[in-house]
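Dear colleague,

Thank you for sharing your sequence with our group. We've completed the structure prediction you requested, and as agreed, I am returning the results in plain text so they can be pasted directly into your records. Please verify that the sequence below matches your submission; if there's any discrepancy, let me know and we will rerun it promptly.
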Amino acid sequence: MRRLWLLCALILLLAALLFVIAGAPARLLAWVVPSSQLSATGYSGTLWNGRAASMAIATPAGPMQLGSVRWRIAPASLLRLSPTARWHSQWGSQALQGRVRWLGGQSLALSDVEFAIDAGVLRGLLPVTVSGRLSGLLSNIVIDNSRLVRLRGQVSWRDAVWRDGDKRFSLGSYALDFRPGRNGSGNDGTRGEVITLEGPLLAGGEVTLSAAGHFALALTLSSEEPIAAPLERALSLVAAPQNDGFLLQLQGNLYPTP
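Please find the predicted structure tokens below.
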């Protein structure tokens, strides 16, 4: 009989907790997520099913604006003590959506992440002016203490264009397949393969990212036709000339120490 009462009390406690969360204002999200990782304004709705008029998340290249964000928490995930929410964001032509699950502490797991954004965001990572459309489907992302631990999925760059003042040079369309490192667990980082889908500038190579944030890119660039002189000069400034094109190598750390 005592166990039955304890079970009933536990069920009532969980029901009360769900009721409190369901009615809690959405602005409490700012108390749950550190401001160093997320900033938002214009909260409306509830913590369970809410919206922020403007939201930005911290990235190695600086804050990334998400625009208007909506989310809805799955009730059953609270019973498993692993809160999971579906989310969708819109900012102009930029759209992102997916699922996020709290793993405890400062660890998050994202899944089924779909996005379509302007390639201009690459300007914060590359010393060139480019445009085009980035889109992708990332099946698994694990973030711990604001650092990328695991990444699996594909990102494509369609209609890539390099700009030199008012001049535009078409590059092509490319894909980057991400997967966990050699042991498949993600403990030894993430590896990615670059392939050319179409276009005059052919690119192929590999990118690696360690759990500590060290990254390395080795990319061969070539063309079956003569490369436009302005583009060739620009490539020669960042890549080493080869017999059949250029070799672009970049190394660094996504999380530089102060």
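Summary note from our side: DSSP finds four helices and 14 strands in the chain.

Kind regards,
the structure core
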